[in-house]
Amino acid sequence: MKPELLHFLFSLQQVCDKFNRMMPNNIRTMRMAKEIQDLTKNPPHGITCWPKNDRNDLLEAIVQGSEGTPYANGNFRIDIVIPERYPMDPPQLKFLTKVYHPNIDNATGLICLDVLKMPPHGRWRPVNNLSLILTAVQQLLSDPNPHDPLDSTIAQEYIANRTLFLENAKKWTKLYAMDNSSTRPSKRKSMDEETCEDTAKRLRPSSPTKPTTSEEPPSKASTVACAQPSNKTMLKRKNDNESVFQETPKRFHESRPLDRSEDDSIPEKQ
């Protein structure tokens, strides 16, 4: 085979490999852009979902517990990772909020749901989307499946003592899921961050501050000079407007008490 033909085939193989690597990412990007738009405009009831850090392969969702269940009034945070081969492969979901549930692992937050598994053990299909998956998770909270559990202890309690299970589920919901996380997390600093910053400011050595005004405080000498009375008298010349100063002698008015017993006292009137 000619070297030119071998070089052409080798270049063609490289182009095909690069195209095969790029295609799944392009499909995922286009698919996720549409799904995020649909979740923003028409979200399912009690479900909120948004991308994290403006990425379409990392998302976060909040699923509200349905009324009439021990998870009512709870807001459960879910972390979503979209694989490279999506929608051929299912997304990976896990709870960030602790849930007392037989199909949810308390340690890792993993979810046992058939729609998140590939066939033949699961029912994932490429036509499924995030809206359907999050709705299925919300339905799982309302209707647990104790026959396919991730926590066998809770599953056994659900089967043998339903009343105790409902009490424990309500306690966990009130303890971990009843907060103000029904909306996207704001960028406001947490209480711990503010406390750490205040502590750092107090420990930081203070730098000397300069006076803000340009006026300097009067000196001690000038203060004393202003307090003492002046011995000069300002006079005005007749011919010009120049002012001259003339030292005036100090006058001491010393009063001497009169003593009528002395000889030079004032004579009395005869």
TrEMBL record:
The keyword ATP-binding applies. GO terms for molecular function: ATP binding; transferase activity. The active site is at C112 (glycyl thioester intermediate). PANTHER family: UBIQUITIN-CONJUGATING ENZYME E2 (PTHR24067). CDD domains: UBCc_UBE2T. InterPro entries: Ub_conjugating_enzyme (IPR050113), UBC (IPR000608), UBQ-conjugating_AS (IPR023313), UBQ-conjugating_enzyme/RWD (IPR016135). Transmembrane segments: none annotated. Residues 261-270 have a biased composition (Acidic residues). This is Ubiquitin-conjugating enzyme E2 T-like. Residues 248-260 have a biased composition (Basic and acidic residues). Residues 205-220 have a biased composition (Low complexity). Residues 27-178 form the UBC core domain. Residues 180-270 are annotated as: Disordered. Belongs to the ubiquitin-conjugating enzyme family. Keywords: ATP-binding, Nucleotide-binding, Transferase, Ubl conjugation pathway. It comes from Daphnia sinensis. Pfam families: UQ_con.
